[in-house]
Prior knowledge:
The structure holds 2 protein chains of 2 kinds.
Chain A: E1 3-6, E2 9-12, H1 17-41, H2 47-64, H3 76-104, H4 115-128, H5 131-142, H6 146-170, H7 174-182, H8 187-218, H9 229-238, H10 242-270
Antiparallel strand pairs in A: 1-2
Chain B: H1 2-6, E1 12-22, E2 28-38, E3 42-46, H2 53-60, E4 68-73, E5 76-77, H3 83-90, E6 93-96, H4 108-113, H5 122-126, H6 132-144, H7 160-173, E7 178-182, H8 190-207, E8 211-214, H9 218-224, E9 227-232, E10 235-240, H10 247-254, H11 274-285
Parallel strand pairs in B: 3-8, 3-9, 6-7, 7-8
Antiparallel strand pairs in B: 1-2, 1-4, 4-5, 9-10
Amino acid sequence: MPVTALDGRVVWRRRTPLAQWAIWCGWFALGVLFVLSWQVMNKNTIWLFVEDAPRQAADLLSRAWPPRWSYLDSLWVPLWDTLNIATLGTALGIVLATPIAFLAARNTTPSVAILRPVALLIIVATRSINSLIWALLLVAIIGPGLLAGIIAIALRSIGFIGKLLYEAIEEIDEAQVEAVRATGASRWQIMDYAVWPQIAPAFAGISVFRWDINIRESTILGLVGAGGIGLQLQSSLARLAWAEVTVIFIVILATVVISEWVSAKVRAAII
Amino acid sequence: MARSRLASPGQDMLRVSSLSKRYKGGEDALRGVTFDVPAGQVVALIGPSGSGKSTLIRCINRLVTPTKGRVELDDTDITRLGGRGLRRARRLMGMIFQEYALVERLTVMENVLSGRLGYVPFWRSFFRRFPQSDVDKAFALLERVGLSEHVGKRASDLSGGQRQRVGIARALEQDPALLLVDEPTASLDPKTARQIMRLVCEVCRERDLPAIISMHDVPLAKMFADRIIGLRAGEIVFDGPPAELDKAVLTEIYGEEDWTQIHPEHEVRPEESAEDRHAHEERMAGLR
């Protein structure tokens, strides 16, 4: 008991002595585990290479600098492809995710027993696979190119948008729904007048947020042949053209910064 | 609707007979409630929290489905209706809520026009292309409740009293044959509460519209209602004119207390009862 009698006075401690000892033992076990893990992890490390690392890094940087700015001219088209993959993929993802979110939300699903678990399964399944892996599969199925990238981004987005949107739907104020229902409105009118206005800000915010993430994800899809600037990155890396890689990194950084700025502006405007 | 206006005074608009409601958890919210309401009568429903006031009002327009008994509006038994028939019955019953229950992100005009949803097809409501007669009516009602200036504002930008006026306009936009009012003043200050009660009672007189108003404020109920029904534990324990509501009756309804002290500010909001919780679940289920 945290409350004990001591010398005729009642003393309060946060924990009982037993609980306090258990916590100290827990910390000790964690320390032992860390030391053991460190030993296992570094069994195959060649320390000579690690000692050499700063020199290697300096060498790489010296070859990557200055950036070969002339390479920029051949990057505009892949960059445009990347933006298209992200934007079209997000749009397709929204179209697919919205009905799934309504099926998954406890308060709007037509069937709790069957459709809701199916919708939740779709959300979990698409979320659990990284878009790079989706792209790998899709390049194998529909061949290399932008389409594989767009579909990969869309599939990965379904889970993200679907999950956040169905949570927003479950959090709506049910009094507003009740009030619209009391007017004699039909099911679709209730959706339009009572449910949709309440989730519209969340819907817009989630969509822009996902678009922002997808810009970043679509920059690497080219590594597996799904189009975009990643394709250029792969070829420069293969040729050890570090000065070109620097230019690509700068372009990606600038794009991501701009997309984050846009999505922040849009979200601020809606909410 | 027109036929409701033609109902001669004294004829019963609403007939509730042996209405019972048992929630899933097994609590009896209503036990055999029976009463009639003639056209134009304003009935105040009083009783302690958990006595079934809210359930009774929601059983009448079937936001909650009663377990037993009948609710007849203009000789139509509402408890037997489903689908389209139920929606047609609901559009005849305007409802006003405690926390206003306006759609916060829609404009005042859209909120008022949502009172026509039971009358217009989906495409008209979706594109906000309501018939001009509905829009004219909405403008007239907004003027009646004193909100002509606020037509284009979002509901969330209004004060409590203004929101409740929008709620009243939305209910009247339905051309109702009956008003169901669930604690209209519980979220308002005493002065606004009186103004809102006066407005509700005035529009009922103007339109010969019967109303059932649940409320906690006994003096306010006595001031405005033609008739008072007292509920306790799901049963009617008093049904009569306000003048007959004396100390003995109040003790019967609420239990022993000093009744000279009644004042809304002194009321403590009780914790959510089991009835509230199951009623909540059932209302959420209705969206499916």
